[in-house]
Amino acid sequence: MQNDLLRLDALNAMTAADFAAALGPVFENAPWVARNAAAARPFATLTALHKAMLTGIEALAAPALAEFLNGHPRLSPETLRRGTTAESTAEQTALGLDALDAEISARLDRLNAAYEARFGYPFILAVRKASLETLFATFERRLAASPEAERAEALAEVAAISWMRLLDRVRAAPTGSVSTHVLDTVRAAPAGGLGVELWRRESDGGMTRITSFVTNADGACDHHLLGGGDLAAGTYEWRYDTPTYFARHGYSTTARAYLGKVRVAFTVWNPEEHFHVPLLLSPGAYTTYRGS
Amino acid sequence: MQNDLLRLDALNAMTAADFAAALGPVFENAPWVARNAAAARPFATLTALHKAMLTGIEALAAPALAEFLNGHPRLSPETLRRGTTAESTAEQTALGLDALDAEISARLDRLNAAYEARFGYPFILAVRKASLETLFATFERRLAASPEAERAEALAEVAAISWMRLLDRVRAAPTGSVSTHVLDTVRAAPAGGLGVELWRRESDGGMTRITSFVTNADGACDHHLLGGGDLAAGTYEWRYDTPTYFARHGYSTTARAYLGKVRVAFTVWNPEEHFHVPLLLSPGAYTTYRGS
Amino acid sequence: MQNDLLRLDALNAMTAADFAAALGPVFENAPWVARNAAAARPFATLTALHKAMLTGIEALAAPALAEFLNGHPRLSPETLRRGTTAESTAEQTALGLDALDAEISARLDRLNAAYEARFGYPFILAVRKASLETLFATFERRLAASPEAERAEALAEVAAISWMRLLDRVRAAPTGSVSTHVLDTVRAAPAGGLGVELWRRESDGGMTRITSFVTNADGACDHHLLGGGDLAAGTYEWRYDTPTYFARHGYSTTARAYLGKVRVAFTVWNPEEHFHVPLLLSPGAYTTYRGS
Amino acid sequence: MQNDLLRLDALNAMTAADFAAALGPVFENAPWVARNAAAARPFATLTALHKAMLTGIEALAAPALAEFLNGHPRLSPETLRRGTTAESTAEQTALGLDALDAEISARLDRLNAAYEARFGYPFILAVRKASLETLFATFERRLAASPEAERAEALAEVAAISWMRLLDRVRAAPTGSVSTHVLDTVRAAPAGGLGVELWRRESDGGMTRITSFVTNADGACDHHLLGGGDLAAGTYEWRYDTPTYFARHGYSTTARAYLGKVRVAFTVWNPEEHFHVPLLLSPGAYTTYRGS
């Protein structure tokens, strides 16, 4: 965990002016959002703080909302050349918009122009979690949306951007964790004794193993993992040693096994939430889903 | 593909003595198996050749079968020190039995002794596809089996070992291939336009990308992959670009997506078969299985 | 199959005036739709005929579209008392709108008034497949939609209504059929030898068994079922004799089985299509989906 | 619930002779099982009582075990004509063995003779949960088993028969219940607001609705169902009003829905256990499994 993050109790205790200064850049060119949210303190969680900030935006009448949306910079190399907020610069650069080849850049320009002509404000996207592929896939879909649907989606992206900027500044409440649960659908019973590893994707794309354990008689870990504030937003992967499990139960010989080790990648967006990932397992099939 | 492999038509055309010499080591200390199979030529596939060889073993009366099983070397560091067939040496060494630490080695010795006392022949396992984890998991399970069940499993391992040795010597018929098929369970329709990659695990554990394609309107590749003799036994992995697909369809924003890229590892045991791997996909769950 | 249905070749051969007369009531108060579609004949399938008719509506400019939508009667007891088209009368009566109690009727009136005030045309729903529960669930959701999204959904309902009216008048092309396919995920292989029944829901709510068969070695029926024009729109149900299958394979004893007989209900909307319903089966879980 | 059942506390309090008399017929022609189990009282649950009784059988040496197994009557019309225990008569009659046609009866005789010749004791099956189909499917499979495997399976059937006879005599502890949990895999979130019904299969084959509820925000019922001793062994069915749920969320229009109402049949074998049945739901697929 980053040690230089603000703590929620510090945010709750500081002056309104300091609070507004600390969180001002969370919404692009809209320091008033943080300023207004100061009055709603104290916040027990980052989720509650974020919700309070969004409430201010949802309350905007149409002209003020248009102005707010227009405060967002265009996503484009040109924006980076001209200069924009530090936050947007970092986000757009992380996606590689500072180094697009000419063809891609021109395609992006055409989409930006078409979008602005249709909707009257710039295309807004939480680019830090995007790739160029998802950027363009999203852009083309949203260009065809109705104005009402698109406004809702633009606001959802505003929420996503501001949430990630909050996570950059403030330590989340230690309420989140992850867990898994494996059901053996051959025996219609929990899969005990199965080796499981939990890995995290690092910012350089590499994977780091966080922990490993063997499932208990209930097919689960004895306690929630990454609790107590250790869960960070990001991408994780469960790796299940299914070949050994199948060998132990005689479901399939090692030589003839069909399934290799099962891996399930999942993304933690809100580290104050619990992420439960069950696995339904048999030699010929498996199912995974977001549990609750 | 290895170019120094024998071809089936060459095997079919050679003298019985040459055939027996070429395939003699396929069954451990039982060159008669290859000798007897020569008369059943020609074989259109390696699968048919293997089946003919196994027929000879299945026809053995109990004493001859016991003798055949006893022709297999014990899996142990001691065996490697004393020397055994070239094939078994290579297989046991690949699993690391030449470099076990003392504790593991002693554990293996105890299991071997208990097994031989109970069943009257050595523990047989197709070790090349095994890990130490699956070796011990399998060993402990089989030690508790009934004599009849265990004899069946020992013969299944004999089949697995001989199959892999055949694959080392003879080029498989070009009848195998792989395919995938993605169903979008949100729309209850094929998932067209989804990026898919096929990767292969190399002998050093690294992954090599074999091909990539975008699913057609039926949610599949336009043609079977790795056909025409290009499919080799081994471990493969499908990688599906589900985040981009979800972004295009607006199922989930990139920032809030729950599932990361979906990967499905599967093992090709018989490269003369077709391996079909469907994926049922939604933002909150996926299911994969061995199709047909 | 109803023998008094028009045949597509007869429709293709008749005069434009007869064609228009035969299909005039298919779109509510819009006989011009059938009249215009006559020129696009011949049609090989009902699906093609329907698509041609819809093309005429999709081409309407906004004022003409508003007029077209306003040609639809309000769904309400009052409409039935005052009298409307024979088709709408039959459809609304089938849903029970002629016999609503006062409270439900008042609730429907309130929704109708709110909807018309918001969108400027009556709420349109393909009521024949609806229940009062789905009517109200749909109504409340659509009342909150954006005008653009709601117009798209109203047109989808127009398509659904007209499709069912076409099915009342014209025999579908004999291109549709149903099939199932069962995978045994314990053995990672097709589930052969499994007893399967196909049932159809009758208009009185009762179920009629259409056919039964035992799955072949590929886990399927030897041929598509209800082909050759025997498939009608409606609700069907697969019933799988999983307890006997499990007993035969020793997966679970009859006494301790967890799953009862598996039933999968599915709706055929377009009898010119093929409906494939796979089942992934194990003693502790099953998955079914719309295949392709 | 049957009110004339013995209570566990009464069984715990009665004399050993009365206990033995009350439970003597639970194991076929082996009143000593109940007699011996008396000393292990008190029992908190029927499960514990049953386990104690089975312990006595598992401790038998081979000759005594053979004698015990041979105390079971042959399953056949001839047995019923000659007369056997009241319990076995009732069980065999419920399966219809008193009214087999000649061909089926002869087939059963052949299997019985072959089985007894092979294993040295009669074929034992918990027939009350069987059908003629599962009887024959099981019989043919077990006839081919190894003596060790078959002895284990015969003892499993002894356990099943005695368990059902215990349930006939003694009221189970009120520890069991059922529950369901529905995940919406489109939104990757619990499916709240979904109508669910729980039905029970009656002895005459008809279905009775036990209860209905609407799922809460967690996709579940607010409390476990059939708790407090209301759960009886038997077959149950969940019925989910998926069409209304899909209509409310706009996942599919009623007219075009693919899936009909989802029904999941499951069997409660031990009414002292909790039976959790999750459902993973999307418009194009669903998965159900035995949860824990």
Automatic annotation (TrEMBL), chains A, B, C, D:
The keyword Glycosyltransferase does not apply. Residues 178-291 form the Transthyretin/hydroxyisourate hydrolase domain. Pathway: Purine metabolism; urate degradation; (S)-allantoin from urate: step 3/3. Its EC number is 4.1.1.97. One of its GO terms (biological process) is allantoin metabolic process. Keywords: Decarboxylase, Hydrolase, Lyase, Purine metabolism. It catalyses: 5-hydroxy-2-oxo-4-ureido-2,5-dihydro-1H-imidazole-5-carboxylate + H(+) = (S)-allantoin + CO2; 5-hydroxyisourate + H2O = 5-hydroxy-2-oxo-4-ureido-2,5-dihydro-1H-imidazole-5-carboxylate + H(+). It comes from the Bacteria. Gene3D superfamilies: Oxo-4-hydroxy-4-carboxy-5-ureidoimidazoline decarboxylase, Transthyretin/hydroxyisourate hydrolase domain. Residues 12-166 form the Oxo-4-hydroxy-4-carboxy-5-ureidoimidazoline decarboxylase domain. Transmembrane segments: none annotated. InterPro entries: Hydroxyisourate_hydrolase, OHCU_decarboxylase, OHCU_decarboxylase-1, OHCU_decarboxylase_sf, Transthyretin/HIU_hydrolase, Transthyretin/HIU_hydrolase_d, Transthyretin/HIU_hydrolase_sf. This is 2-oxo-4-hydroxy-4-carboxy-5-ureidoimidazoline decarboxylase. It comes from Xanthobacter flavus.
